[in-house]
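User: Can you write out an input/output pair for a complex, sequences first and structure second?

Assistant: Here is one pair. Inputs:
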Amino acid sequence: MQAHLSLLLVVIPLAAAPVVAILPQGRLPWAVSLIVTSICAVLAGMQLWAVVHDGVISYELGGWAPPWGIEYRIDAVNAFIALIVAGIAAITLPYALLSTEKEIPEHQIPLFYSAFLLCFAGLLGITQTGDIFNVFVFLEISSLSSYALISLGRKRQALTSAYQYLIMGTLGATFFLIGVGLLYSQTGTLNMTDLAKLLPGVIELKTVHTGFTFILIGIALKLALFPLHLWLPNAYTYAPTVVTVFLAATATKVAVYVMLRILFSVFPTGFVSATPTGDLFMVLGIAGIIIASVYAIYQMNVKRLLAYSSVAQIGYIALGIGFASASGLTASMIHVFNHALMKGALFMAVGAIVYRLGACRMENIHGLGRQMPWTFAAIIIGGLSLIGVPGTAGFISKWYLVLAALEQQAWIAVAVILIGSLLAVVYMGKVIEALYFKPATEKNLSVKEAPILLLAPTWVLVIANIYFGLNTELTVGIAERAVQVLGAVAK
Amino acid sequence: MSAETMILMTMLLPLLGAVGIIATRRHPDLREAVTLVTASLVAILVIIIANRFLDGEEFALTVAEPLAGVSIAFKVEALGMLFALVAGLLWLVTSIYSIGYMRSHNEKNQTRFFAAFAVAISCTLGIAFSDNLFTLFLFYELLTLSTYPLVTHSGTAEARKGGRVYLGILLGTSIGLFLLGILITWLVTGTITFQEGGILAGKLDPAWAGLLYALFLFGIGKAALMPFHRWLPAAMVAPTPVSALLHAVAVVKAGVFTLLKVTIYIFGGDFILSNDVTGGLVWVAAATILFASMIAMSKDNLKARLAYSTVSQLSYIALGAMLASKSALVGASMHITMHAFSKITLFFAAGAIYVATHKKLVSELNGLGRAMPITFGAFLIGALSIIGLPPFGGMWSKWYLGLGAVETGQLILLGVLMISSLLNIAYLLPIPVRAFFSKPTSGEHYTEIKEAPKTILLAMLITSITCIILFFYPDPFYKLARLAAGGS
């Protein structure tokens, strides 16, 4: 089985999706999805272990040798991302049972889980494959299913948000495809390892540069890199809670992975620093951190507030990419992981409030902190991690990012990172003030703590936020290894 | 008990206490018993550690190492021992006081109050024993967060506003400047562990040292140097025991303590002296001393006046740190203790007055002395000790600070210290004088007013008598201060 590990990770959820769709209503679809995601999480863990110990895994699909056939090529970078995706999915599913029963009409539940598994398979596929056209295919699988997932939200705005995302997402995917086509026209290959070999020969060509730009913009859209983030706040706000948790913690992370792969593995060493790409990322990262954080402060819906915070956090990741140095990329990789933890925990905790209240606008949640102490504590700890208080995972990200900035004496970036933390204090403070200090309304006084099935997964992530703030062997260790694999960075 | 367990216990005991306090929330008497027992155990523990430390035993412990070279580690050294001793002993006294205060006030949410208090003490001891800047920073931030519910205790709009200023300034300076200072130190030297003689000498271009020192000086917002002092008056909306222990002792002293740690163990006194790192910055401390004293004079609200007095007195310590000569460092370290005991007495008295009479303004205190002789007697002792007169402990720290100024040839700074003492007299002494010698305004009679409850009086007596004892017997603190300053 060891040999087929990489393929199984994609095939299992892909095959399970149609099965789940035809299952009878009730809890069976959920149970099957839970089993599938748990298996995948274990497999992803094994895969990462195998990569760390035995080196790169290369799997030839259908026995066709690359570069002609499709190759699944797993190294520390994508094994790490695959583990994040599968791990988050496995933690989200126990949470999903009650949350979806509340938010999604009964007859749609099998279809919901089917779409969820498709999206999951798509995201895993992107991480596994070594073929750039295959990346596009999986990108579309995950995107199309996520449009469906978002449109299942209870409010009517969910439909317009899904439509908005559909337009932007399709634009992004098309741009990506055009870029891939242009690269193919010059090199005649779609295998990423092969591309990396051939590109240096044609790197001066305008066509290659154009292709690069198309790909960059395409992924930046999926990544919700400021100012291409417009789809994200609506999508996160109106999607069903489970979808928000899952997408916030994984979808943008996978896009970050594709970006890293293209920028540093496929294109030759120094390309990012030689072109204005690095500066572009830095400028957009800085703008994203500041502007999205300020937007977050003014949001009246907690989910939307967290969504804007996500855009800001993507800014941090972009900043790390922009430095194009080993420490900068390490910071980005660590933050990909840590941000999945903190936003997962926060969206879950807010989801628990939605579960009890049916809403999460600032004026609805007054005084809930006393009514739901465990949920409240989860929001506090998640918030602290977001701010980057020492002892939490968020601090580790900030530590590496600021060091990377200091290394290049990018003083503006240093200031922006620290100011971003302070803005996070302000917007998380607003949520906490509403939850704790505003007197509870009559209605809120009768609200009870969320059920254990929602609290347990939330707290798994909350504790992970603290654990990975104190023990970074996994995160930093793998991230550093991943950066070595990406290799092509100026030291 | 092994040395490692003992250090851990100092921090775990208050945490366990907090859990116990929450568990016994339905039985107030039992809850208060938990507080007292925990506080007593902590006090005993720090005394034992201090004794064994002075006997030459070493206490060190690494708990976790999140990043290579960046660990959560504790080590007992002289300065930290001194701070832990002050915080540990005064927690017990304050607990006795709080029980009387909170009960006679019928405050709400007393469980939260006592639990958060215990957590704050745990963080304070964590700061005192931390072996590197990362550990210190961790507990520094946790202390800010754990005291936030205490500042906003009453939940009123004013308290929330005060809380916002409190969090805003303390988190803002610490994340924006202090953390930056730590990161730059790490980048330059590759370590952030405290070391005898400092770690920057020879690694950092002296031209940049002043700038780095400024990052620390202003970044450690808890030291309340102007212009980052506003959080301290804002925190006065908290109940008086909080103002007394946290905002005259634990939190603010954590600030100046951190500054001293950075001065002695990161920069090193010799590095500062030989490169004149702090030449310009001492004036920030000097200005804070004078301006804060002047603002204190203009305040009619008793707690606000005491708060500005604290701002001013904290800068004595900052000044001592920046002068960096042996005597100055001894004086600064001693002042942590001396100011703690004196100022907590003043706050205790202010709280006692409030409990007994519900008066907050200095101008309302005329003639109260006869009704509350013990309270105002204690206030007088605390005030004289702050001014620095014999036979009160406050004299010693001012003595050594003055000596430090002379040693380094900073005669103007010596003048600043003198003027400040005069200002202290001007804003502190009128309070007991009014109480004892002035007639009550507009024919009020204070026949029905009595002293505050016994626990409050007891706490006040303990601290005020300690102020006198410390004059005749400053030994344990003096010894620790000398050790910290690098003498023997």
